[in-house]
Design a protein that fits this description.
heterodimer; A: 446 residues; alpha/beta; Fumarate Reductase Iron-sulfur Protein, Chain B, domain 2; FAD/NAD(P)-binding domain; 3 domains; five-stranded parallel sheet; four-stranded parallel sheet; globular; B: 472 residues; TIM Barrel; Alpha-Beta Plaits; eight-stranded parallel beta barrel; 13 helices; 17% strand
Chain lengths: 446, 472
């Protein structure tokens, strides 16, 4: 079912998205690995949501044991290859590196991890199935994104029979459809999924409706919800459904699957406006640049210090030539020939810190494509059908250590639980839930 | 400004930095370039009946991605005709009369052959002679090199033959591949040698190819032990030089040219402090070229200026009196480790080094609660301490503006829970923590006066012997 190559973007498009951070070659990796101090109770390991034993895998690179290094990573994080590319290491492992205290560059943990994982996979390395008893109990994982993949892989390692169900044609979730190409390619994501498939995890394409859910409850001993978030929130404006207005995740998925090879509906399109200043907005803005946009502007209703994008993402966007327009609230769209006229209003901060429109400050911006990137709304629709699974602020409520929801048969993890964090958080959630499920089903959990 | 001009056993040269007898001194063209770069003298690649070398001659030991921490070679003496070497020595001396050219010699163990060789070398204008009694590979199988240097009687006999005809200073090069290097040094003194050079290379096999199982260097599938040199051997060389330079048997110490892993002016200064009059360099030049002598001269001069030393003689041998036998060390001197919290980066290497490799006195118990069980003194109870608590935490990616930043807790840049604590009652002052600490000045060993008068093992055991039996 995984036909990655047919779905890869055109070579020409791929060429516009070279790696943001080039790979380390073998010699450079050894030099960098030797720089690691090999801390005891290393803070990088604590900072990693999946607690990869960072000094251990790094010192294995230094000793020339790359196989052992990759297995060390995979032991803790089955999506070690994609995490190596997409993790915001500045705020995780590398951010906690003790080298900062010596005023030295932190160890390049992300690139070392990528070196170990890619060397391992390129040499034909596979996930090793642990020695354990095969078990009859079955677990269904809904959604084929990082949380479900991690949960499924760990459950297989514990001997359970696992099926992963997703409505999209390709598994991998946002790893396949939503991560900027210069960070992670579709092929990389699918290779990782194939590894998990080789462990004996079954994958199925299909929508889970209320009847399906009843069937699942009947056929499976536990259900893991790794459904992520729903579609991006729509702008509540007239004309926002026009073909020149494309949701950010749809825009990214489009170019990653090769369906979108230029920015806009017509050849002359060259001006793009992205609304919102989160990490996905930045990914979309940078993608628009690389797809040929002349001007890319990010509109944000508040100030720079309020935006939710990481600083390094913001700086990356500046280097790509993206322009930021702060304290700007779009109000309405109107078609103007082939172009769109965006009516905006300036905002100011009120005494409670909220951004409020300033009367009389209306102005217009002309552009060809509008990309709203203003957060995702939770998949309330499906989850409300799950009996007894409590929600709070649109997120599934779980026990943090086991992933168990208020319905003991259901476990959950990833974006639907944390509201949208990183791949590595989803992997950690999925793995914890796997052990929670194993414990609930009477299996030993390490 | 420091004056580096040197008179070593009567051999005069602009500075005490010599190139050792080795590939960098193989021919006149090289030697002249070395002199242009600033070297004060050279010991010519050993002259003798030409030999045939093998292809693939060197192998090295890398350490932590650094190349050539140690170098090993199976190259023999000069493979060029004696006459050619002598002609080039004469040419070099004609062009560089103020620089030292020492001829390293090795011929079969016959009195007449040695006499002839000595006369020829001196006839070519060599300023001195170095007798190669050290080469540990190949030549030793033919009864030369270290085969001579390992038998004091042979070394003495040949040195005596050389001294019968030599008009220039004669240096004997010592092999470290011997139980007590002083024995051959004494033999040289008995034979009235004018000086010594030490150490030659150490027998070694540097490593094995894990795919072919062939040791390195590989000569058509086979290898042979070679001579080890480079930074790795410096401590061994420094010890042997100290042993010889402190030895008064068969006469006071004679001039010593120090050899063994010298790569910088700091290394050289250490050999001078151990009593050497000149130093010889090979591996560092084979790695980086003749140009390294510039900083050796510059760095040594600046250090000497800072210390107020006008010449090398002003500090030569100053550390020899600081080396003694263990039994003369003060048993009542106590130091303990002290961690500077403001410098600590929280790597905890001192903890694990002390815990697993030393005396279990550095603890991770600065805070109570989930991490530690509170301060522990002594070994008892320390085993209850949780290991690597980081694995147990639930961590998540911080979202800017929503989550508190990764940051410090407490008065120091590193959070207190990560800073180890020294239990001074258990610390034996071994230094290990300060050696592994990656931050300069973070762990210092500070003296804790014991209030006891200095006492050595020798004194203590002598005292015990003096005590009359009935008083015990």
């Amino acid at each position: 079912m995984l036909k990655a190559d047919n779905s890869l973007p055109e070579t020409e498009i791929a060429a516009r998205f070279p790696d943001l951070h080039p790979a380390l070659d073998a010699r450079a990796a050894v030099v960098e690995a030797n720089r690691c101090l090999n801390c005891f109770d290393a803070p990088c390991m604590s900072a990693c949501p999946t607690h990869i034993d960072v000094p251990r895998f790094i010192k294995k690179i230094a000793s020339g044991n790359v196989t052992g290094s990759a297995r060390t990573i995979l032991d803790a994080n089955v999506l070690g290859a994609s995490c190596a590319r997409v993790c915001p290491v500045d705020v995780l492992c590398e951010g906690s590196c003790v080298m900062h205290g010596k005023h030295e560059q932190p160890i390049e943990i992300g690139r070392l991890q990528r070196f170990a994982m890619e060397t391992f996979y390129d040499a034909g390395g596979k996930l090793a199935l642990r020695r354990r008893e095969e078990r009859k109990q079955r677990v269904a994982c809904i959604g084929a994104g990082p949380a479900s993949l991690a949960c499924a892989a760990e459950l297989r390692q514990l001997g359970f029979q696992v099926k992963v169900i997703d409505r999209r044609a390709l598994p991998g979730g946002l790893n396949t459809y939503g991560v900027a190409e210069y960070k992670l390619r579709v092929g990389d994501s699918l290779r990782e999924v194939r590894m998990i498939q080789d462990l004996g995890v079954e994958f199925e394409v299909g929508e889970v409706d209320p009847e399906g859910l009843t069937e699942l409850e009947r056929d499976f001993d536990a259900v893991f919800l790794g459904v992520g978030l729903g579609a991006m929130r729509r702008l509540a404006h007239d004309g926002s459904a026009s073909e020149s207005v494309v949701d950010a995740l749809e825009f990214i998925a489009g170019y990653k699957t090769g369906q979108r090879t230029s920015i806009g509906p017509h050849a002359k399109a060259r001006r793009v406006v992205v609304i919102g200043a989160g990490n996905t907005a930045i990914d979309a803005a940078c993608a628009a640049k690389r797809l040929g946009a002349g001007e890319v502007t990010i509109l944000y209703r508040r100030q720079r210090e309020h935006m939710s994008a990481f600083d390094f993402e913001y700086e990356h966007a500046l280097r790509e030539g993206v322009v930021f327009c702060w304290a700007t609230l779009p109000k309405a769209f109107a078609a103007k020939g082939d172009a769109i006229e965006l009516q905006c209003i300036a905002t100011a901060q009120d005494e409670t810190g909220q951004a409020v429109p300033v009367e009389g400050s209306e102005f217009t911006i002309e552009c060809d494509v509008v990309i709203p990137a203003i957060g995702q709304s939770p998949l309330l629709e499906l989850l409300s059908q799950v009996r007894g699974v409590a929600m709070e602020h649109g997120r599934v409520v779980i026990q943090r250590t086991t992933g168990q929801t208020t319905n003991p048969k259901y476990f959950a993890g990833g974006d639907c639980v944390n509201g949208g964090r990183e791949v590595v958080d989803a992997v950690a959630d999925g793995k914890r839930a796997a052990h929670g499920i194993a414990a609930a089903l009477g299996g030993a959990s390490s | 400004m420091a004056d580096l001009t040197t008179n070593f056993a009567g051999i005069r040269c602009p500075n005490p930095f010599w190139l050792a007898s080795a590939p960098p001194t193989n021919c006149g063209e090289q030697v002249m370039r070395a002199f242009d770069a600033g070297w004060g003298g050279v010991v010519w690649k050993t002259i003798g009946e030409p030999i045939t070398n093998v292809s693939s001659r060197y192998s090295s030991v890398d350490w932590n991605a650094q190349r050539m921490m140690g170098l090993n070679n199976i190259e023999l003496i000069s493979d060029r005709p004696i006459e050619l070497n002598l002609r080039e020595i004469a040419e070099v001396k004609r062009r560089y009369p103020g620089h030292a050219v020492i001829a390293s010699l090795m011929v079969e163990s016959k009195r007449e052959t040695w006499h002839e060789m000595v006369k020829q070398a001196e006839g070519a204008g060599a300023d001195g002679l170095e007798l190669n009694f050290g080469c540990p590979h190949g030549m030793s199988e033919r009864g030369m090199g270290s085969a001579v240097g390992q038998v004091p009687e042979y070394a003495q006999l040949i040195t005596e033959w050389v001294k019968e005809v030599a008009r220039t200073p004669v240096l004997v090069k010592l092999t470290p591949n011997i139980t007590d290097i002083r024995m051959v040094a004494r033999a040289a003194k008995r034979a009235r040698a004018d000086g010594l050079s030490a150490i030659n290379t150490i027998n070694s096999i540097t490593g094995i190819d894990l795919d072919t199982f062939e040791p390195r260097p590989n000569v058509d599938g086979k290898s042979s032990h070679g001579g080890y040199c480079g930074p790795a051997v410096k401590p061994i060389a420094l010890n042997m030089v100290q042993q010889v330079n402190s030895d008064y048997v068969d006469g006071p110490p004679i001039p010593m040219s120090g050899i063994g892993g010298i790569a910088t002016w700091r290394d050289a200064a250490e050999f001078f402090l151990m009593g050497c009059g000149t130093v010889q360099v090979c591996t560092a030049v084979m790695h980086y070229g003749y140009r390294i002598v510039e900083d050796m001269i510059d760095g040594l001069s600046n250090w000497m200026d800072g210390k107020g030393f006008a010449t090398v003689e002003d500090f030569r041998g100053k550390s020899l009196t600081r080396v003694t036998e263990w039994k003369h060390l003060n048993l009542n001197y106590k130091i303990v480790a002290q961690i500077d919290e403001s410098l600590c980066i929280g790597c905890q290497l001192c903890h694990i080094a002390c815990w697993d490799g030393a005396h279990q006195c550095i603890h991770l118990d600065r805070v109570t609660g989930p991490l530690g069980t509170g301060p522990v003194d002594g070994h008892v109870g320390a085993h209850a301490k949780p290991q690597e608590p980081g694995r147990k935490r639930i961590a998540a990616t911080p979202i800017p503006k929503l989550d508190p930043p990764i940051g410090s807790v407490g008065p120091f840049a590193t959070s207190l829970e990560r800073i180890p604590r020294v239990d001074e009652t258990e610390c034996v002052g071994c230094n290990l923590c300060s050696l592994v600490c990656p931050v300069d000045g973070c762990i210092t060993m500070v003296e804790r006066p014991t209030g006891l008068a200095p006492q050595t093992w020798a004194e203590r055991t002598a005292e015990a012997e003096c005590v009359p039996p009935q008083a015990k």
